[in-house]
Specification:
Layout: H1 9-28, H2 35-46, E1 50-51, H3 52-59, H4 63-75, E2 79-83, E3 91-95, H5 97-118, H6 123-140
Antiparallel strand pairs: 1-3, 2-3
Helix pairs in contact: 1-5, 3-4
């Protein structure tokens, strides 16, 4: 039985993800920010002071991966980690002034990338894509 790779939606998703990640990586390279680190920064720009656990849950990443990313961002002077007073094992993550200021540069770049990605795609089509991908994620849980 011959099966065509075109039959697998995962191929399309994977190839699209690779292209998007490559584009983000090249646009963020001058700022020494990796695409995954940018996701952490985006979360903090939306709500500063998240716990390491909250970041891991929102990004669906394991704690070790998140800890490594946060250490790297901390070494770059973009964030600081602070022990919670009520739970010494838990860390809250805060933007530094440098990290907060970076938002003014990165957000317009992210919007431009999205504009490029969404070119020729209606809002209705985007909503359908989001809905279908959400259903696929639910099916795999």
């Amino acid at each position: 039985m011959n099966v065509s790779l075109d039959e697998y939606i995962s191929i399309y998703i994977h190839q699209t993800d690779l292209l998007i990640t490559s584009e983000v990586k090249s646009k963020l390279a001058p700022f020494n920010i990796a695409p995954e680190q940018n996701l952490v920064m985006m979360l903090l720009w939306k709500k500063d002071g998240l716990s390491q656990q909250e970041i891991a849950e929102k990004l669906k990443k394991d704690k070790t991966n998140i800890a490594r990313m946060l250490l790297n961002l901390e070494q770059k002077g973009l964030i600081r980690r602070v022990c919670c007073q009520h739970d010494r094992r838990s860390l809250k993550v805060f933007l530094t002034e440098k990290g907060d200021n970076l938002k003014e540069i990165i957000i317009p770049i992210a919007k431009e990338i999205n504009k490029q990605i969404y070119k020729g795609i209606s809002e209705e089509e985007l909503q359908t894509v989001r809905s279908v991908l959400s259903k696929m994620r639910e099916n795999l849980r």
